[in-house]
Amino acid sequence: MAWEAVADDDQLDEGDMMVVQMGGQPICVVRLYEDEAVAVHNTCTHQQQPLNEGYLQEDDSLICPAHNSRFDLHTGIPTGVPAVDPIPTYACKIEDGAIWVDFEQQTNDAAIPHKPYYT
Ligand code: FES
Q1: What is the CATH number of the domain that holds 50?
Q2: Quick one: which of 18, 22, 69, 74 has the most CB atoms within 10 Å?
Q3: Which protein residue's CA is at the shortest distance from atom 1 of ligand 1?
Q4: Is a pLDDT exceeding 80 seen at residue 81?
């Protein structure tokens, strides 16, 4: 396990997102609620656009800004086309005044999306 503090607790308000680099991959950290944050790969599995520029929904899903694919942020599963492959999700917690992500603990079996075109 390799938990890393990626943000101070007060750095992200509910509904805020930020991108951090972990293991050479762009990871999107989303503060869903006061007591819950999630971490997902920031790359849409449709055409590799950055998900942190997308739109958070009330059902804890995120809509890609490029072509409106929708991903469940807890499971990584696409719930709206055109994406058909899931995005990787990672262990994430709020503790001791910080938001923590363990990049080595992927919580689903999604493949790492190939290198984004935007970086
Ligand atoms: S790149 Fe995300 S829906 Fe097309």
Answers
A1: 2.102.10.10
A2: 69
A3: 47
A4: yes
Q: Kindly state the average pLDDT of the residues 5-25.
A: 96
Residue 76 lies in a domain: yes
What's the Cα-to-Cα distance from 33 to each of 18, 24, 82, 94, rounded to whole Å?
A: 15, 27, 28, 10
Query: Would the pLDDT of 118 be above 70?
Result: no
Check: CB of residue 119 under 8 Å from CB of residue 113. Answer: no
pLDDT, one tens digit per residue, over 27-42 is: 999 999 999 999 999 9
Range of the domain at 19: 3-106
Q: Are 27 and 19 in contact (CB under 8 A)?
A: yes
Residue 114 lies in a domain: no
With 0.85 as the threshold, say if the pTM is over it.
Answer: yes
CA of 83 to the centre of ligand 1 (A): 7
Task: Give domain status of residue 16, yes or no.
Answer: yes
For ligand 1, whether the C-beta of 47 sits within 6 Å is yes
